[in-house]
Structure to design on (287 residues):
């Protein structure tokens, strides 16, 4: 098994190859002035391919599809994709008439190639795996690493910003030995505006609270959750998010939080949670 990687994932590739003793080789990449791209791979019968698809999602997806196509043309029989962040995952269903299920379209391209497994970190919704048919999807959630980052703050309650993410709060809370709960969130699909309210009976008076979520984009959800937690009397509010895009003025909007922790699926200044060991373990179980 050969380990191939795109340049922006070299840090993860080096750590994973060191843990598993795999030969790591870069994918050659070229970006042309007209916006087109080209890749060159080293042919292999079996290979694991690591691709960070964010930022420049659309360009990186094209590079991924070209690499898969080249590997398949040269006789690859088994390919394992390691995609730390799955793009288009938030469009996992049709929210308005006429819309596509974008993540299904992306995964539909992948299953055209000899891909046996996709390893990803904290998919927006676990049922996304159903869209890829006979390709097995391994969804890694680094709850223990997140708990380790938060432990210094003596967290009393772990909160999810909405009902759909409560499984993350539960996993981290169990690792911390803390309680867990969630807010009720509503999003206007036309404007993107977020409305959030505490569940009836939720009290955070004098407690240290951690908010966990999968994506920090503009910071609107975290800011709203932080303000609600403080309005309920929280003594300190902290956040741990898997994929931190930090778009626009997200840093300014999240100043309500005492500390923010992110994983290195998308590198940023808050990326203190390294998921390479979890990815290596998931890959080792497949090999």
């Amino acid at each position: 098994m050969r380990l191939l990687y795109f340049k922006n994932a070299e840090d993860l590739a080096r750590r994973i190859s060191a843990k598993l003793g795999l030969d790591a080789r870069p994918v050659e990449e070229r970006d042309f002035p007209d916006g087109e791209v080209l890749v060159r791979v080293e042919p292999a019968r079996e290979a694991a391919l690591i691709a960070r698809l964010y930022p420049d999602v659309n360009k990186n997806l094209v590079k991924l599809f070209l690499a898969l196509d080249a590997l398949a043309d040269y006789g690859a029989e088994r390919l394992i994709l390691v995609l730390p962040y799955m793009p288009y995952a938030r469009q996992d269903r049709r929210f308005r008439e006429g819309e596509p299920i974008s993540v299904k379209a992306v995964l539909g391209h992948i299953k055209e190639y000899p891909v046996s497994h996709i390893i990803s970190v904290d998919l927006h919704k676990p049922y996304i795996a159903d869209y890829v048919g006979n390709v097995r999807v391994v969804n890694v959630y680094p709850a223990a690493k997140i708990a380790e980052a938060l432990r210094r703050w003596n967290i009393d309650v772990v909160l999810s910003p909405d009902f759909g993410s409560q499984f993350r709060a539960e996993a981290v809370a169990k690792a911390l030995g803390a309680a867990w709960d969630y807010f009720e969130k509503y999003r206007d699909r036309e404007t993107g505006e977020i409305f959030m309210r505490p569940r009836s009976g939720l009290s955070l008076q004098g407690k240290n609270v951690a908010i966990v979520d999968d994506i920090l984009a503009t910071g609107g959800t975290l800011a709203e959750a932080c303000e609600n937690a403080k309005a309920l009397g929280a003594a300190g509010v902290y956040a741990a998010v898997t994929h931190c895009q930090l778009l626009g003025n997200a840093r300014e909007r999240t100043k309500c939080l005492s500390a923010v922790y992110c994983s290195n699926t998308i590198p940023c200044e808050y990326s203190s949670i390294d998921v390479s060991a979890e990815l290596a373990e998931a890959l080792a179980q497949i090999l």
The chain has two domains: 2-140, 143-273.
